[in-house]
């Protein structure tokens, strides 16, 4: 009985501490924490795209891999996302966000370094899988940490602010990697992987100085430490906002139980939300990842483009900057329009229309048209969709299972990426390039529409109001 009362008391205190964070007028996370999260996400997104450039027609022959082997290596990295997300996400709920964020950075660093030193198919495969595990976990734990440590008001804008730096990985990453690759194809691919490894080791060190989230500290009984963090945030917020007092926190009362994170699937409301989000991300990855990792490889098989591989690689890299710009533009609407509606728009405008234009341009050898498609796909499709997916996955589940449920959604969803990257090059000769590339994008739009009817409005609301207080344990 004592343990039960203690657990209930800790959870009540956690709700109070969280409410105190939600009423803050500004975000006051320490700069070191913001940088460690943003920098780590930069690496994750940089890695997503660098493998496509490292295995492009420009440098593939220097890696010692064939086109089919390179495709398998890419897929194995994506398959690594699944155990990485599920295992590290679950441990993030059981042990804590901070130690698992350090683990993800270390795995990414080891995998990237190993790929830079790989000389055969087996080595590439093993280290790519390790990298995938690290990235899979990072993509779960970074948004989980963020939504738990920023105020409810303008939560998505604060979320977006940190992610803008991350999107630079998809914007500046391909730009930098493409020029490295073209400058010296024989060793350029190695340098691309080494850059990722170096950055990951730096992030590992920085995250060691970050604090655990207030929720996790309170739920683990570290009340004094949690109180100290919140009090420090309150003092900094008042100073930053130029006020002497803060409004009274609104604490939402809700039932609590000491349960395993997977208990979330016994609640029908959460179960429907998690499955719907998982399917939307599954089909998004099904369409997005072939574009990110296999598009350049596909263009090397188009006869009319074989003499233009360097130019196409540079165009593809240049267009990556649009991803960074898109993340900035999203700030104007992210806290004004419901997340599922924005998600559906980004799926259709960015992925369907953008990739359609790029493919039609490629098949007609119209490089200007292809570049236009690249820009649209990166600006709206990649620049908006990923971030909206992460908000959908982390805002609509309870604290005790936030990392686990999003790990399930994002981890299982990466099967879509693994499947599509493994089969798309063999399907294109059968169905045709335009039909295949566009067909891979359509299902995500259908799921986006379904999300509009499944997910609640989360704008300006506390996580407890959205979940525990309205949907239960």
Automatic annotation (TrEMBL):
<feature type="transmembrane region" description="Helical">
    <location>
        <begin position="272"/>
        <end position="292"/>
    </location>
</feature>
<feature type="transmembrane region" description="Helical">
    <location>
        <begin position="312"/>
        <end position="334"/>
    </location>
</feature>
<dbReference type="InterPro" id="IPR011701">
    <property type="entry name" value="MFS"/>
</dbReference>
<dbReference type="InterPro" id="IPR020846">
    <property type="entry name" value="MFS_dom"/>
</dbReference>
<feature type="transmembrane region" description="Helical">
    <location>
        <begin position="186"/>
        <end position="206"/>
    </location>
</feature>
<feature type="transmembrane region" description="Helical">
    <location>
        <begin position="26"/>
        <end position="49"/>
    </location>
</feature>
<feature type="transmembrane region" description="Helical">
    <location>
        <begin position="100"/>
        <end position="118"/>
    </location>
</feature>
<dbReference type="InterPro" id="IPR005829">
    <property type="entry name" value="Sugar_transporter_CS"/>
</dbReference>
<feature type="transmembrane region" description="Helical">
    <location>
        <begin position="69"/>
        <end position="88"/>
    </location>
</feature>
<feature type="transmembrane region" description="Helical">
    <location>
        <begin position="367"/>
        <end position="385"/>
    </location>
</feature>
<dbReference type="InterPro" id="IPR036259">
    <property type="entry name" value="MFS_trans_sf"/>
</dbReference>
<feature type="transmembrane region" description="Helical">
    <location>
        <begin position="341"/>
        <end position="361"/>
    </location>
</feature>
<keyword id="KW-1133">Transmembrane helix</keyword>
<feature type="transmembrane region" description="Helical">
    <location>
        <begin position="434"/>
        <end position="455"/>
    </location>
</feature>
<dbReference type="GO" id="GO:0022857">
    <property type="term" value="F:transmembrane transporter activity"/>
</dbReference>
<protein>
    <submittedName>
        <fullName>MFS transporter</fullName>
    </submittedName>
</protein>
<keyword id="KW-0472">Membrane</keyword>
<keyword id="KW-0812">Transmembrane</keyword>
<feature type="domain" description="Major facilitator superfamily (MFS) profile">
    <location>
        <begin position="33"/>
        <end position="459"/>
    </location>
</feature>
<feature type="transmembrane region" description="Helical">
    <location>
        <begin position="124"/>
        <end position="146"/>
    </location>
</feature>
<keyword id="KW-0813">Transport</keyword>
<dbReference type="GO" id="GO:0016020">
    <property type="term" value="C:membrane"/>
</dbReference>
<feature type="transmembrane region" description="Helical">
    <location>
        <begin position="158"/>
        <end position="180"/>
    </location>
</feature>
<feature type="transmembrane region" description="Helical">
    <location>
        <begin position="406"/>
        <end position="428"/>
    </location>
</feature>
<dbReference type="Pfam" id="PF07690">
    <property type="entry name" value="MFS_1"/>
</dbReference>
């Amino acid at each position: 009985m004592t343990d039960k009362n203690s657990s209930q008391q800790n959870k009540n205190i956690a709700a109070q501490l969280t409410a105190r964070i939600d009423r803050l007028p500004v975000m006051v996370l320490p700069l070191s924490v913001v940088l460690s999260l943003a920098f780590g996400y930069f690496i994750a997104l940089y890695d997503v795209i660098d493998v496509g450039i490292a295995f492009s027609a420009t440098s593939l022959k220097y890696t010692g891999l064939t086109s089919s082997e390179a495709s398998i290596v890419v897929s194995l990295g994506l398959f690594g996302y699944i155990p990485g997300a599920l295992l590290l996400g679950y441990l993030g709920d059981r042990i804590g966000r901070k130690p698992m964020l350090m683990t993800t950075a270390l795995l990414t660093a080891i995998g990237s370094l190993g790929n830079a030193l790989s000389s055969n198919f087996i080595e590439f495969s093993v280290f790519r899988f390790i990298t995938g595990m690290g990235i899979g976990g990072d993509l779960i734990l970074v948004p989980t940490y963020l939504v738990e440590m920023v105020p409810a008001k303008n939560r998505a804008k604060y979320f977006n602010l940190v992610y803008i730096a991350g999107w630079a990985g998809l914007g500046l990453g391909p730009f930098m990697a493409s020029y490295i690759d073209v400058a010296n194809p024989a060793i350029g691919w190695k340098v691309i992987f080494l850059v990722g490894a170096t950055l990951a080791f730096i992030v590992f060190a920085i995250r060691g100085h970050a604090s655990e989230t207030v929720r996790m500290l309170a739920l683990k009984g570290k009340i004094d430490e949690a109180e100290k963090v919140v009090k420090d945030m309150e003092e900094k917020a008042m100073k930053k906002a130029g006020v002497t007092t803060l409004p009274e926190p609104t604490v939402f009362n809700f039932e609590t139980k000491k349960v395993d994170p997977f208990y979330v699937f016994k609640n029908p409301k959460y179960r429907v939300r998690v499955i719907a989000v998982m399917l939307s991300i599954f089909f998004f990855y099904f369409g997005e990842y072939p574009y990110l990792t296999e598009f350049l490889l596909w263009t090397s098989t188009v006869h009319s483009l074989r003499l233009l591989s360097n130019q196409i690689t540079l165009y593809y890299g240049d267009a990556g900057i649009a991803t960074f710009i898109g993340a900035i533009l999203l700030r104007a609407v992210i806290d004004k329009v419901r997340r599922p509606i924005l998600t559906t728009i980004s799926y259709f405008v960015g992925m369907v229309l953008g990739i359609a234009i790029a493919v039609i341009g490629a098949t007609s050898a119209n490089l200007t048209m292809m570049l236009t498609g690249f820009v649209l796909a990166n600006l709206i499709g990649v620049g908006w969709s990923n971030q909206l997916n992460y908000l959908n996955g982390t805002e609509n589940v309870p604290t005790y299972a936030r990392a686990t449920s999003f790990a399930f959604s994002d981890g299982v969803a990466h099967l879509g990426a693994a499947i599509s990257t493994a089969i798309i090059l063999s399907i294109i000769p059968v169905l045709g390039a335009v039909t295949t590339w566009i067909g891979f994008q359509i299902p995500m739009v259908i799921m986006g529409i379904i999300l509009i009817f499944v997910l609640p409005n989360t704008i300006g609301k506390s996580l407890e109001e959205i979940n525990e207080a309205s949907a239960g344990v």
